[in-house]
Amino acid sequence: MTDVNSRRGGGANSSLGPGDSIHSTWRFPNQSPLNQSGHASCIELAALEEIRSSCWPSQRSEHDRENTLIRLRRLTKDRSWEQAYDGGTNAFYSEMRRQQPCDASIPLLDRPVVLRSFAFRRSLRSRNELREHRIQGAFAVSSKRRPSTRRRLVRFHPACQVVRRPFPKILKDLEAKSMSFRSQQTRRKFLKTAVAVAAAPYVITSNALGQGDVPPASDRIVMGGIGIGNQGSSDQGAFLGRPDVQYVAVSDVRESVRKAAKERADQHYKNSDCQTYGDFREILARDDIDAVHIATPDHWHAIMVIEACRHGKDVYCQKPETLTLREGPLMIDAARRYARVVSGGSQRVQEDYKELVARCWGGELGAIKSINVNVGPLSQLCNLPAETTPPDIDWEMWLGPAAWAPYNAARCSGSFATDGGSWRSYVDYSGGGMTDWGAHHFGGATFAIDVRELQPVEIEYHNDPEGKHLTYKYANGVLLHHNRPKTENLVVEGTPGEKRPAKPAPTYKGEGGIYGDFINCVKTREKPFRDIELAVNTVAVSHLGTIAYQLQRSLKWDQAAQEFPGDEEANRFLDRARRQPWQL
Prior knowledge:
The protein has helices spanning 42-55, 62-76, 80-99, 127-135, 168-184, 187-199, 206-209, 230-240, 255-269, 280-284, 301-310, 327-337, 348-351, 354-361, 395-399, 433-436, 438-448, 513-524, 532-551, 568-571, and strands at 140-142, 162-164, 221-226, 245-251, 275-277, 291-294, 314-318, 342-345, 370-373, 458-464, 467-473, 479-482, 492-493, 555-556.
């Protein structure tokens, strides 16, 4: 049962079709439901059925309209049926046009405005007679036109047009006003205005045009920063130093940090254009920003990266990019779904391990068998006492998706310590040194042995008297040891007697290190050196090792399914709960 509202034309809810019925709340202008006596007669219900069946455009013509009105007048002897008919027809056609994709030359109104319902007889006229009658001015067809980017004309049914009698005096006044306006805009006045505009000076700043090695503003990447603490301020400085970047906004939960970041940007550009925000979503909502860099605590990374991609922003995200195994595939999916350039932020992978990579990829060490990485520790629980929250920080926003905890300066310290002196030490916000430094060391190791595109298929846990350690096994047979006793960091076991042909190792695109690589890829739309998928594979090594240490047993891992096959206990560690509204 469909309810047609009381407004003439039916409004947005009028979407009846063949076979639908009309609810008894149909109202006529200046009338109570159905009739003034307060009840619906069989004759009136039959008339309503006539309206319903005759209003559907695919089954009725204009000729049928007049015949229907004649039958309605015989049934009810009330000309208000004609108004109901016209209003209902307009509603049906309005709904039809909204549902049909088209390139109309005028906007499609939600509900046509009926100036006056005028039922005219034309059942006995031919189309040619009607056309001649309109040309002679007997009828004036009015339609409200508005500017639109649509071009293709749409032919509307006559019932959708507003038909009224001509009003000679009103039309004459309108014509006089129109002529008066046209007479004021003479050719001479137009030429004078054009000359004045041409003679006016154009003021274009050197900043907009570019000077020296600085490209014009139209060729620069407009950037904003989210999380401008210790690492974030370093990233900001790197992007400010690039002439092809225009840095325009910063977001941080600390007011003092925001002000300091704004001052750095304003001093660099010698203006005051950099805007500050306490909520990162305000930066993402800006249409003029092309890319953002993120350097918040790890528990914010996935949410911010996914939201940035959804808002059409390219992203440079500090390592470790994820806090859980489940976050990685979601970030990769967002980058691919929205066609965004998303780069991980571990500059050491290329710069600190360049020599090792050159020897491995150059074939000097032969076939690589294994490599050892010493890194840690794991993150720990945080039981710090509550302290007074300073007014400078938005503590609720700092916590975000993490479990609520009282403020403590050490809990949110931006220090790089992983032994209890900063958020990097605690399980709610980070994976500890295993992920924080593991992003560098595991990243360099997997790059050297050429397994960046893979994740381990098995993690073997060793509880030896000399110390607990792990062995990661890859599908290609290469082993990656973690904290192997009596073994130095990044020791590679190869087959030096078996020289292998050299192959070129991937490197940064463009100049300026990892920051230049990201900016260059924003322009070219290529994948950066630390593409989000490669970064996720690296931090997955840390997460898998952490779970093996926590369960104190070996694990098998399915990279395609992103789960521990048949291991429900281990699968409980794939993700963690988040506070509302920060869900993935």
